[in-house]
Write a structure and sequence with these properties.
Helix content: 40-55%
Strand content: 15-25%
Structural class: alpha/beta
CATH superfamily of the largest domain: MoaB/Mog-like domain
Order of helices and strands: EHHEHEHEHHEEEEHEHEEHEHEHEHHH
CATH class of the largest domain: Alpha Beta
């Protein structure tokens, strides 16, 4: 099965907020064996939302739209969905309680009517009551086409609550029924975490493995972030056993090729890996840090992991040359000759 994700919100298109919803939804779909083939971002505009929903249905069995379901004037997702399918918006009174739950004893009929916008959903759709927030969602089952539209809130906490509790079980049922008729795609992934090596070096070292992986339908992607590189392995097959075996095979080859450049897997942070290494040694190992241009970043990274106080003693951020010389006793001649940002001025222990 293929799926499109539609993110709705003018603030997303303007770059005012970071879109974390797509990542969460796409990763969850991958775990279910559902391939996300398109991700759209559209403004809070009824006509544009309608156009994108129609377009999504051309390419996907499932469309998940998030955002634009609140009570304000720019929350027009329900209108866009109804328009796309030629449906009327009807009030579902079973949603009134949650639509009004944050304001008691409402005296203004205007405010009440605004809040009750959240109770309107396209005709023949299935309402979803929110457990977090007041914005209701809905599910549209297009039976002749055998396609589905899920509309859920865009606020991350509200989205995750509704997606996990109300959307995923339906998708599991849909994919389960389809898999009985045709082989359902199994997708498994692994993320190898590396540091102290560049994207280009990784690509050069594993180029032979990439070609081998393609033959057994395992894709290898490399993504960069400050201080680390992720190698993402995605295995796809209609057989779960083959899917797992192929992933293990390619993962093992990449690990053997890169060896010490890989410090852990599946988004484990460097600080968590450090903690595990210290525990494995089963010795009274302690760490102290002297930083300069990093401005305390290394210390922050270490202390982000719970229990770090057992082995992390503290740090000193010596930014100026004076602090380096007086507090850390870095030779002032080395600083003068080679500069503060140099191997000679920083290797002082």
């Amino acid at each position: 099965m293929k799926c499109s994700i539609v993110n709705i919100g003018t603030e997303l298109n303007l770059g005012l907020i970071f879109n974390t919803n797509s990542k969460y939804i796409a990763e969850s779909l991958t775990e279910l064996g559902t391939e996300c083939n398109f991700i759209y971002t559209v403004r809070d505009d009824e006509e544009e939302i309608s156009v994108i929903l129609k377009e999504s249905l051309k390419h996907s069995d499932i469309v998940i739209a998030n955002g634009g379901l609140g009570p304000t004037d720019d929350d027009v997702t329900r209108n866009g969905a109804a328009s796309a399918l030629g449906l009327k918006l009807l009030r579902d009174k079973s949603l009134d309680e949650t639509s009004l739950k944050f304001i008691k004893n409402i005296k203004s009929s205007d405010i009440k009517n605004r809040l009750l916008r959240q109770s309107y959903i396209p005709q023949n759709s299935i309402p979803i009551k929110p457990r977090v927030g007041s914005a209701s969602g809905f599910i549209i089952n297009l039976k002749p086409e055998k396609k589905w539209i899920f509309c859920i809130p865009g606020v991350p906490k509200e989205m995750k609550s509704m997606f996990d509790t109300d959307v995923i079980p339906v998708i599991k049922t849909i994919s389960g029924s389809k898999s009985k008729k045709s082989g359902n795609l199994i997708i498994k992934k692994s993320v190898l975490m590396t540091t102290d090596i560049s994207e280009t070096e990784i690509e050069e070292k594993i180029k032979g493995i990439v070609k081998e992986a393609e033959k057994i339908n395992v894709k290898i992607g490399i993504t960069a972030a400050p201080g680390l590189i992720k190698i993402i392995l995605v295995s796809m097959s209609d057989c779960e056993e083959n899917c797992s075996r192929h992933l293990r095979r390619i993962e093992g080859k990449v690990k053997r090729k890169l060896r010490e450049d890989i410090y852990n897997k599946n988004n484990t942070s460097i600080s968590e890996s450090l903690k595990r290494a210290i525990i494995r040694k089963n010795k009274n190992i302690t760490i102290s840090v002297a930083e300069s241009m990093t401005g305390g970043l290394v210390s922050s990274m270490i202390t982000d992991t719970g229990g770090s106080s057992e082995y992390f003693l503290g740090s000193m951020v010596s930014y100026s040359n004076y602090a380096k010389n007086i507090l850390l006793q870095v030779n002032s001649n080395s600083i003068g000759k080679y500069g503060a940002v140099s191997k000679e001025a920083n290797c002082f222990i």
